[in-house]
Specification:
2 domains; Rossmann fold; 14% strand; globular; 43% helix; alpha/beta
């Protein structure tokens, strides 16, 4: 097949592209590398600013690149708006052009969009989300920006609705995205769940001497620390480091490109990922594939969606400070649990997220 992947979130499309090529398919990946994360891409198409000179440069490069966007069996968008760096109404016209010049176009439910935000903020079917917990509203600048953009901007709402209803299929990569689209009677039958693709390597975790301090890692996105609960995770980790200086070491990484981030993560025992999602995403799964235990969302609903009845490798925490403290302190005091969790983490990713296995699920859905 001839496949065009547009846009990038957290290395998803880059990992999928590599696996599809291994399976013998022709793939062109065009993205901005997910901004400063600099994930690999075939064509790096980024808009440096919204100023006039940078906008004109971007539009010229986009126009030239579009010459290569015809005649594909499959085009997949990472998001209904952010697959290119254009305003929603311009991106919608580009989508209609892609529909005319290619065989099929698919939409990824891989991040924030109208349906996910509406479900998370208005319907509230889950015990918790980015916007609420059982005890509080999660109110910060990034959430307010998401509400203004996805629910109150008519162009973005129209773009999401038009693309969702006219595309050839929708792929949800996380439990909460799947639930959001399944709640739409007109979209549920064209939506499927496919796990995130992860490159699985044979190398195991770095083995350190008995009695070594636990190395606990946290990545910090400077402008988005409240979005995933990083502010709470960091506060609790620092408190526990002060309480157990002989047992743990805290490793932090702030706004690092993917390669540097990965090097710093290597050799750590535990990744502190996020607290508002019931499922682990790319960051946690990539760490787990290397035998690093993830403190993240690991609710029973997401295990059930995968059909997983045995493995429970994720340090599941509720989105409250006390819960994070209890879960993290327990593993600090009982590091003998880590070997089993490491083994289960690697097996879990290999069983459900191995990139070639996931790529075949995409091919099956695209061809259906």
């Amino acid at each position: 097949m001839k496949i065009l992947l547009l846009g990038e979130y957290s290395n998803l499309h880059a990992t999928l592209a590599a696996a599809l090529r291994d399976l013998g398919h022709e793939v062109r990946l065009v993205s901005d590398g997910d901004e400063w994360k600099c994930y690999p891409t075939d064509i790096r198409l980024s808009r440096r600013s919204t100023g006039l000179p940078d906008t004109l440069t971007y539009l010229i490069r986009l126009q030239r690149e579009m010459r290569h966007w015809r005649g594909y069996d499959v085009v997949q968008l990472i998001n209904p708006v952010h697959y290119v760096q254009l305003k929603a109404e311009r991106g919608l016209r580009l989508y209609d052009w892609l529909r005319r010049h290619n065989r099929r176009v698919f939409l990824g439910a891989f991040g924030d969009d109208y349906y996910h935000i509406y479900n998370s903020y208005v319907r509230r079917p889950l015990p918790y989300s980015d916007f609420y917990t059982p005890t509080r509203e999660v109110d910060h600048a990034w959430n307010r920006q998401n509400l203004d953009g996805w629910l109150r901007n008519p162009q973005m709402v129209r773009s999401c609705q038009h693309i969702a209803h006219t595309c050839d299929g929708i792929i949800a990569a996380l439990y909460e995205y799947y639930v959001a689209y399944q709640a739409e009677p007109d979209l549920k039958d064209k939506t499927t769940f496919i796990p995130l693709p992860i490159e699985v390597r044979d190398e195991g975790p770095e083995v350190r001497g008995e009695g070594s301090k636990l190395r606990i890692f946290i990545g910090i996105q400077r402008q988005r620390s409240e979005l995933k609960g990083t502010d709470i995770l960091l506060k609790v980790a620092r408190e526990l480091q002060a309480k157990y200086p002989e047992r743990m070491e805290l490793v932090t990484a702030e706004n690092l490109p993917f390669d540097q981030y990965t090097r710093l993560l290597s050799g750590c025992d535990i990744l502190l990922d996020q607290i508002y999602s019931p499922t682990p995403a790319m960051n946690a799964l990539q760490a787990m594939s290397r035998g690093i235990v993830a403190l993240s969302g690991g609710e029973e609903e997401q295990y059930a969606l995968l059909g997983e009845r045995e493995l429970r490798p994720i340090l599941n925490t509720q989105p409250e400070e006390d819960s994070v403290r209890d879960v993290l302190e327990d593993i600090i005091l009982h590091p003998e649990r880590l070997p089993l969790l490491r083994q289960q983490s690697m097996l879990y990713v290999r069983r459900h997220h191995e990139a070639h296995k996931v790529a075949r699920q995409y091919l099956d859905f695209w061809n259906r």
